[in-house]
Amino acid sequence: MAEPLTGLDALYEGTFHAPPEEAPPVPEDQSLWIVNCGEVATACSTAAAGATEAAEEIGWEARLCDGELNAGGAWANCIRQAIAANADALLLIAIDCGAIAQPLQEAASAGIPTVSSLGYDCDDPEIGEESLFTASVIPSDDYPTTAEYTIALGEARADWVRAVGGDEAEVIEVDFQGVLAGVYAHKGFTEGMSDCASCTIHSAPVTNQSIGTLRQTLESAILQNPEASFVTVTNDALVLLGSSQAVAGSPRRNELSLIGGEGAPPVLDLMRDGLGVSAVLAQSMTWFGYAGIDTIIRVLNDEDAAPAGLGFQLVDTQRGLPESGPYEPPVDFKEAYLAAWAAAE
């Protein structure tokens, strides 16, 4: 096996911290609705499963509503179903406020708090309106907002590309448009590449609506840019729904290196099998779910959200790839959260 890449020690080490050591009392007998961006998106489904697990650990009833990537207005429909069901709280996974402003106002009028994990509130600079979420998960002290966290991920992808490709790297960026996660990932990546005057970035744009043709889009970009050696992808859903297939099926597959998203188990399998993925910025989406429950507990106690200790860690075929199974972060966040919640009783 090749030696780990130089200049990336901090990313190989990871940027995680411990979750909060203390929590307020856990309210009893709460009915929670969890709305994820869509079960087809691995980050969303895994975070929602983590939140469901955490809610059940503290004796809450949790109901999941599949946001279906907002097909047919599914996000708003899920929120309105929760309102009709008299939910005690709503947890929204990777859904931006701008797409659901009206139902969020309806939830507020009904006295139902709404907490976001991995989403962007309406007071985000890219939206410029009033905040409508009751609270949002704070990823960590290092990344106090989801935007700062996502920008850091983009910058880390740029660091990896430059460490591998040097000062003349040519890269195809799968640019996830129409959602703020993509906007900020793009911003971080371009900022990270900005001082590389001889590097070249080509765009392969994709939206929630065009995911079905992502493979063809990326295959065309690879054909049109025969000198490109790198592909960057913001999340594992886009890796699994076309990007890895385009790279693995390319006649130039041995010349292409793809860095993907959060390191979901199917993506790690692709890395192990040499099928179109070379590296990921491994994250625990389950932790984002637990952090969402912790934030709701604090909201129900009229407290502010606490930094969750979330981070990411470079995993590539040189270092950090487990022989089998899922990625596990270097912090036992479940034990930490459950201990804090139990101590508060």
From TrEMBL:
- TM region positions: none
GO CC annotation: cell envelope
Pfam families with a match to the protein in the record: Peripla_BP_4
Keyword terms: Signal
Q: Which domain of life is it from?
A: Bacteria
InterPro entries in the record, alphabetically? Peripla_BP_I, SBP_2_dom
Q: Where in the cell is it found?
A: Cell envelope
Q: Where is the Periplasmic binding protein domain?
A: 45-303
Per the record, the similarity remark reads: Belongs to the bacterial solute-binding protein 2 family.
What name does the UniProt record give this protein?
Periplasmic binding protein domain-containing protein
Q: Which source organism does the UniProt entry give? A: Aeromicrobium marinum DSM 15272
List the lineage, top down.
Bacteria, Bacillati, Actinomycetota, Actinomycetes, Propionibacteriales
